[in-house]
Structures are given as structure tokens and as C-alpha cells.
Write a structure and sequence with these properties.
alpha+beta; 3 strands; 43% helix
């Protein structure tokens, strides 16, 4: 399980940015903590969500995204594999 820290969120952001996604923190009326804007490679995270919600929402999006493994270094690839294999526990 990924610890609920700002460092964990930064690692997730770095993984997304390396894969060509942009991450923005905005206010919004979407029900989840984050969303992917209509296939534009832009991820919007609800800035008013707490840290745990932000991390969980970003992890769920990462699990659904098709990422280019060639762009990732070995550490990021191992981190991505860990995310995709780990089940979130609430």
C-alpha cells in the first residue's frame, strides 16, 4: 500500500508527467477526486479534496490509462507495476 504523504502524490504526478500527461489542481464539481479531460492527456485533480482522496483518485486513473512503458525509467516502471497490482483498501 502506498503511504498517504505528499511525496507519494509527487511520485504519482512525476509518473504521469513522464508518460505525457499534464496534472492540474482545480476546483470543480466532479464527484471523484480527479478526472481525465476527454482524451486530452490532461488530468484535473480536485484541489479541495484531502490528500488521501487525491492519491486514491490519481491511482484509479493511472490504473485505467494506457501508458507508454518505453518512456519510463526502471524505477518508474517498477512503481507503475506496483500500482497496477495493488488493490486499494478503504
Amino acid at each position: 500500500m502506498l503511504p498517504i504523504t505528499n511525496h507519494s502524490l509527487e511520485k504519482l504526478e512525476s509518473l504521469l508527467k513522464t508518460s505525457g500527461y499534464k496534472v492540474r489542481y482545480e476546483k470543480g464539481n466532479f464527484k471523484t477526486g480527479a478526472c481525465l479531460l476527454q482524451n486530452s492527456r490532461m488530468i484535473v485533480v480536485n484541489k479541495f479534496s484531502n490528500l488521501e482522496s487525491k492519491i486514491q483518485a490519481v491511482i484509479e486513473l493511472i490504473r485505467q490509462l494506457e501508458m507508454d512503458y518505453k518512456q519510463l525509467d526502471d524505477k518508474q516502471l517498477a512503481f507503475l507495476q506496483q500500482i497496477k497490482q495493488t488493490e486499494l483498501q478503504l
